[in-house]
Design a protein that fits this description.
This protein is an alpha/beta fold. It is 29% helix and 18% strand. The strands form six sheets. The chain has a five-stranded mixed beta sheet, covered by helices on one side. Strands 8-7-6-11-12 form a five-stranded parallel beta sheet. A hairpin with a 2-residue loop joins strand 9 and strand 10.
Length: 380
């Protein structure tokens, strides 16, 4: 049976849902904190940018071990600048990079630096037309699967850095790259608790390309629009009960109450059963538990099927849920391609305002009359 999401991406979904983002900024006594001016961040907690006299320090915090640093980078603009020995030195702006995940693509597109990409894992999974065309023309090297990176092909590109999402705490392929002298830059935006926290990682990306002012401008517009929409949703007179996801091989991964998906539901004016749950990852549930808590839900969001026929063929028990009976089941797959690309996992990362507008319009159509959805679609 065909689903709209690609099983090439399932390991990402699985880890995204299962892993718990327990990290954060270290306290002053726990980490190396040299003198410098720290850039103010509004929502993101997984990184910091510290300006020093002749270099910039880029800190990525460990999402699996609270109060520790996963990686430290020292950004310099010339080869003579002296930096501390406890991090990775990077000459910026970067001119040639390889990417392991499509989640990096839209950040780079918004910063007008997509031309710097020379390699990409599973390029058929990117929705971006520019990168797809370059890959099909041979201008971007296919580096294999993100969980099984082709190290030899990556080394042959001589990239200044490889952007990785740190899905695993250790990765033998990335270790080999580092040992060969290729810096690995970890971007863990997917572990943020809020959508705006994820989107603010555009500032992290911008520091690598000398595009800080552009990032500030882009993010300010996105954040302001998101907050405007959230304020609009707070005016809703009702709070529809929502459910999300679907059963996969006997387990239904429902968003934890402190996950970015649960925060999206709250910001859109929804009532979510697990809203008070402290989990930032997922809740692996069986069908009986989901039925007990969500059989009378009003709306089913982010369902992975394209039609009611497919949904019911997959599992007849889906018919027991009220949204199936009332026809209020929605997917996040409006912008997909036959090879498995889904723009929900790409452009929605830096543009959560568009996603929030879609969900508000789904739950409260009277608040956004005439809204044209970007990511959501109704399953008939």
């Amino acid at each position: 049976m065909h689903r709209t999401f690609s099983f090439f991406l399932f390991p990402f979904f699985f880890l995204l849902l299962l892993l718990t983002a327990c990290g954060g900024r270290p306290s002053a006594g726990q980490a190396h904190v040299p003198a410098g001016d720290t850039v103010s961040l509004r929502y993101a907690t997984g990184f910091d940018i510290v300006r020093h006299g002749h270099f910039t320090e880029l800190l990525v915090y460990n999402p699996w071990q609270s109060g520790t640093v996963l990686a430290r980078y020292y950004l310099v603009t010339d080869d003579t600048t002296h930096v501390p020995a406890d991090g990775t030195r990077l000459r910026v702006p970067l001119r040639h990079v390889a990417l392991t995940s499509v989640t990096h693509v839209s950040f780079m597109e918004q910063l007008s630096v997509l031309d710097r990409v020379v390699g990409l894992c599973s390029p058929h999974l990117t929705y971006n037309a520019t990168l797809r065309a370059r890959a099909e023309a041979g201008g971007i090297s296919d580096l294999g699967d993100a969980f099984n990176l082709n190290v030899e092909r990556a080394l042959a590109l001589h990239p200044q850095a490889v952007m990785a999402s740190a899905y695993n705490q250790t990765d033998a392929h990335l270790t080999r790259l580092s040992q060969a002298g290729v810096p690995v830059v970890y971007s863990t935006e997917w572990m943020e608790k809020s959508l705006l926290g994820r989107a603010e990682w555009i500032k992290f990306t911008a520091a690598l390309y000398g595009r800080e002012q552009a990032a500030d401008s882009v993010f300010a517009r996105v954040a302001d629009e998101y907050e405007r929409l959230a304020a609009l949703a707070r005016q809703a007179g009702t709070h529809p009960r929502v459910m999300a996801g679907s059963d996969f091989r006997g387990t239904w991964y429902m968003p934890g109450g402190d996950s970015f998906m649960a925060h999206l539901f709250a910001d859109a004016g929804a009532d979510y059963f697990y809203a008070d749950d402290p989990s930032t990852g997922s809740l692996p549930l069986n069908m009986e538990t989901v039925l007990a808590h969500f059989a009378q839900a009003d709306v089913w969001l982010n369902c992975g099927y394209t039609s009611m026929e497919q949904l019911l063929e997959a599992n007849g028990k889906y018919a027991l849920f009220r949204p199936v009976q009332t026809g209020r089941v929605y997917h996040f797959n409006r912008r997909t391609l036959p090879g498995g690309a889904n723009d929900f996992w790409e452009s929605a990362v830096p543009r959560p305002d568009l996603l929030l507008a879609d969900v508000i319009a789904t739950l409260h159509p009277d608040l956004l009359p005439g809204h044209e959805p970007v990511y959501t679609g109704k399953i008939d």
